[in-house]
Protein: Oxidoreductase
Amino acid sequence: MESSGKTALITGASSGIGYELAKLFAQEGHNLVLVARSEAELQRIAQDLERSCGIETLVIAADLFDPEAPHEVYDRVRRAGITVNYLVNDAGQGVYCKFADTDLEQELRIIQLNVNALVVLTKLFLRDMLARNEGRILQLASMVSKNPAPWSAIYGGTKAFVYYFSQALVQELEGTEVTVTALRPGGTDTDFFRKEHGEEAALVQEGKLGPADEVARDGYEAMMEGRNAVVSGWQNKIMDKAAQLMPDTLAAKQMKKMHEPRPGGRRQ
Structure:
């Protein structure tokens, strides 16, 4: 496959949904800028995709918990003379516990990653896209972006920001050839729950996690179609519609049942 000449920048590209999205872009002939903390893992992925898909890659090892890192990513891309046609803000993390018992500094770092870094990258690359009147942005929101998430209160709050921020941009960009799409997966089979120490959450113990490759495909197709949002998975679509009919307090109680710990449960 020959390169399309277009480039996708993907944060959180070393694993999970970000990695699956990188594969999809590469299979369609798009060049890649891969961003994550692990340079060794990114280099391995880059070499595999270059060899199998005939594309070009740029690896940027960056810790987006650092407030300066998003600016450094943008500057690195500009110095390389790369035009980013597709921006995918996938990087994100949570912390699993009751809010009163979690570490404040860790939560502030998560807000930096999930919100601040996403805003900076969106701002910088969006301006370039508008100058060309061409580009697409995919933001990783979540099912919990429109439903309260007990036991993951900070994560849910950051994803609510991502979703409503993205929908505001959709309206601001009307009349241009630049689009923003919010991807809203449910619990997904990645290392997310291990990183947030949420392996005992009911939805994990009951095996209610969607495949990362299907989530990535849903997001990729919605982005390419210029849709403003997509809920991944038919069960999640049903849950989302049902939650819209519930009072917020009832929706929060339903989400609590899915997220509260279930020690000793058996994973399927």
